[in-house]
Amino acid sequence: MIIGSKEVVDSQEVSQPLEGWLGEIKFNWQSIPEFEADPERLGHLAIICDGNRRAARERVLDPYFGHRAGVEVIKGILRAGREWNINTLTFWVWSTENWGRENEQVKFVMNLAAQYFRDEGVIKELTENEVRFTHFGRKDKLNPEIREAIEDLENQTVDFDRFRLNMAMDYGGLDETARAVGKMFADFKRGTFNPEIFKTTPQAILGFLDSADQALPDLVIRTGTKEGEIPHTSGFMPLQTAYSGWVFLPDLFPNLTPQVLLGPIKNFLEYERRLGK
């Protein structure tokens, strides 16, 4: 049985190609090339996971199944990140604008997310490797089952600091900024915040963002950028990524392999960042 765009899809015509695709992805991520990133130059890698539905259409599958394939790629990148000594990984998997999609797709993705956050294999991998999980974005629009699963996973891993895994779900840069302003105003009313601090320490605003206790992204990779398309950031972590490197890959997210991902990582590490100096 495979949960699909309908209540349940139980036909060999759909299930066999999908299972074959998932098996291919798992095989691709079994062999991680040897590499070790310099943590001083690349400690935080963020990925905008674009192209799931397009990848499924290329295989003549229900577009929603692309999200299922994307989950397997996330699992693979999480393993690769540890082996490559990248301390923090952030995945943007659902934006505040995505709620405007058709109800069937929303239900499918939310069901998939709930399965991931409750997956015993995922929980075991995070706890055994001391990976702290954090959610970026809003939680009030997520259904109670997903909110509870997210909070449980955050609580189970809260004491870990070896690696960080962030999932940006119901996240938008404008929404995050608005929520940060709300937090500042609330603290100001309580007398615990003085906006005068921004005159000498403008970076203090970072303490009100979802990533408050974390290092800023060094590199952001957006997948699924079509040839000839003008790249755009979609408002992803606008304050945190002001000095980040950006790479726009044509590869659709489910089609990523360790070799494809490692290419821009190596290029980034070889590039001299001046940061205005």
Describe the structure.
The structure is a single chain. The chain has 277 residues and is an alpha/beta fold. It has a single domain (46-269), classed as Undecaprenyl pyrophosphate synthetase, CATH 3.40.1180. Helix content is 40%, strand content 13%. It has helices spanning 12-28, 52-58, 65-83, 103-118, 120-128, 144-156, 173-190, 258-270; strands at residues 44-48, 88-95, 131-136, 163-171, 219-222, 245-248. Helix 4 (103-118) packs parallel to helix 6 (144-156). The longest helix has 19 residues, at 65-83.
Quick structural overview:
The protein has 277 residues and is of the alpha/beta class. It contains eight helices and six strands, in the order αβααβααβαβαββα. A six-stranded parallel sheet has the order 3-4-2-1-5-6, sandwiched between helices.
What are its keywords?
277 residues, alpha/beta, Undecaprenyl pyrophosphate synthetase, six-stranded parallel β-sheet, 8 helices, globular, disordered N terminus
Strand-and-helix sequence, N→C? HEHHEHHEHEHEEH
Helix content: 40-55%
* End-to-end C-alpha gap: 57 Å
Question: What's the shape?
Answer: globular
Uncertain residue ranges: 1-13
Supply the CATH superfamily name.
Answer: Decaprenyl diphosphate synthase-like
Work out the helix count.
8
Question: Can you summarize the main beta sheet?
Answer: 6 strands, parallel
For the CA atoms, what is the radius of gyration? 19 Å
